[in-house]
Amino acid sequence: MRLPQLDHTTLEGEQLALYENMKDGIHRNFAGFTAINDHEDLIGPWNPWLTFPKFGGPVWKLVLALGDKPVLPKPIREIGILVTGAHFHSAYELYAHILVAKLRGISDAKVRTISSGNRPSDLTYEEGLAYDFAYTLVNGGIVPEILYQEMEQAFGRDGTVEFIYLVGLYCMVSTTLNGFKVPLPADEDL
Fold this sequence. Notes:
mainly alpha
């Protein structure tokens, strides 16, 4: 890791307030994977965000906004996140969201295929839309009009907007994790 692990007991001011907010949000919204270590310190992308609250604070607000009354079904969100994590080869993101995707009912075979960077042949129509849309975004392309229209028909305008921002957020999560070489929790291996 390129950043030291912050010890939450040494935090003050803006960092302490952000830590408390993040810790609370993790407990409420991020079950199924390790995001807080045995010492109650935040790991994964939260440690870099907390280290640089000028940037991490606004990113955390986006995380919270995307988690506040989401329109999209949870499995559809996870497909977008897995496509993004696979594109960036982001170990921690894949570790976390492989576990979450399974909890949200996505089959092991689909999770394995998506996280290895491939498109499963047995996606439902809606899952296929999510895969294709996320794949196009993370590969730097403009979403074709037909795909955009089908996404809006399936998930509405609000769902489509949510998906675009979700993929963008997880691009940032992935680059944060990769840029700072954030490791997996000690007891995990991909």
